[in-house]
Amino acid sequence: xxxxxxxxxxxxxxxxxxxxxxxxxxxxxxxxxxxxxxxxxxxxxxxxxxxxxxxxxxxxxxxxxxxxxxxxxxxxxxxxxxxxxxxxxxxxxxxxxxxxxxxxxxxxxxxxxxxxxxxxxxxxxxxxxxxxxxxxxxxxxxxxxxxxxxxxxxxxxxxxxxxxxxxxxxxxxxxxxxxxxxxxx
Length: 185
Prior knowledge:
The chain is an alpha/beta fold. The protein has one domain (3-178): Ribonuclease H-like superfamily/Ribonuclease H (Nucleotidyltransferase, domain 5, 2-Layer Sandwich), CATH 3.30.420.10. Helix content is 41%, strand content 18%. The protein is built from six helices and five strands; from the N terminus they run E-E-E-H-E-H-H-E-H-H-H. Helix 1 runs parallel beside helix 3 (97-105). It is globular, with a radius of gyration of 17 Å. Mean pLDDT is 78; it is low at 1-10.
């Protein structure tokens, strides 16, 4: 399906939830959870999970509502029902019935991510390394400082790099289809 929609690749929005802790081999309690959405034109929306908040279906619905508003404002070409695709991993929050019902009501075509397929996760092979590099080795006193640094790093990622990651996703998906779903590097 992805290969036949090459011209629509900019209409695919990637969604990922990640815990951000910028130190390595140093114990710290300072962490924050980042939820982000992007397409081939760049980051469209990101949100940080408030401290103590559990990422549930209802929390994710509130993030999706903010995403719809942001899409209408900054990517109006995707505000019509059925005008974009949504690729997410198989996290339970993404599979929650209220989230699936909301996506169906908005007529968003969900591209299901095959389980255990990190080779098809642009967040893992593209975005997170770009995000972590400028943060590597820095110590943060509280979540607010991490969030500011992460937001700055997200904004600094060149659009050309994001576009290349989507081309890489298309190439990887094509190879995965050719390999009949087997893991590829």
